[in-house]
Amino acid sequence: MKALLTGAQGQLGRALQRTAPAGVTVEALGRADLDLTDADAISARILASRPDVLINAAAYTEVDKAESEEALAHAINADAVAAMVAALEETGGKLVHVSTDFVFDGTSTRAYRPSDTRNPLSAYGRSKAAGEDVLRPTDLLIRTAWVYAAGGANFVRTMLRLMRERDDIGVVADQVGAPTWATGLAEVIWALVEQGASGTFHHCDAGETSWHGFATAIQEEALELGLLDRTTLIRAITTADYPTPAKRPAFSLLDCSETRDLLKDGYTDWRANLRRMLEEEKSLG
Length: 285
Fold this sequence. Notes:
Layout: E1 2-6, H1 11-18, E2 25-29, H2 39-49, E3 53-56, H3 70-91, E4 94-100, H4 123-133, E5 140-144, E6 147-148, H5 155-165, E7 168-172, E8 176-177, E9 180-181, H6 182-194, E10 199-202, E11 209-210, H7 211-225, E12 233-237, H8 257-263, H9 270-284
Helix pairs in contact: 1-6, 2-3, 3-4, 5-7, 7-9
């Protein structure tokens, strides 16, 4: 199988390259290799590569900045996807597209199912929903949330830095979700591809927490591993205490039961995967 991968330098893109199954040849493209605002360049690259599967792990992800750059976010998160679909119509092949919990409004009282109505609250969420809308029934859409990886730019590494620099930090406690280790997400994506899956699937790690609970777990695990040498006070604050340009869903849990049923795999708790990520982080020095 020949796979074309966008977002090669991102934390998911790197994980997808590390976990590619035997027999899969991956052509990985970063920002320098392909301008996702150039539909003609996207088409030309796909026509030249003619992949069996195109995994789109690239995205405009600056959630707050998207409020003032919605056109750019839409160009990368929606128009580029439309260009990919159009080119794949000529060459054949499946598009595997990664989306987000931000397409939902966070008002649900249960975990969001793949078929639930979307109602994005932010420019970023709207751009990602628009990208979902151009997919074909034969394509594969995978929604996830709160992704992190060793060596990446993410909440875990930001918390580690702040815990080393400050005596106390305030972290939002009224937004609930499930952290997702990029390596596990990459393995699920490849498993779905190998199953020939199409349609919409969800994947996050098992369990749930708040950003405050996540930060507390990060500190506890990091202290045990020697990544931190002192305790920082982690204050629980509300979303209202930490205003941001983009409105975020208060409830981001995704129902992953259809993914688990198809793959017949285990469902690793988010804290166990956090520990694995921090062990990797320690090994990076």
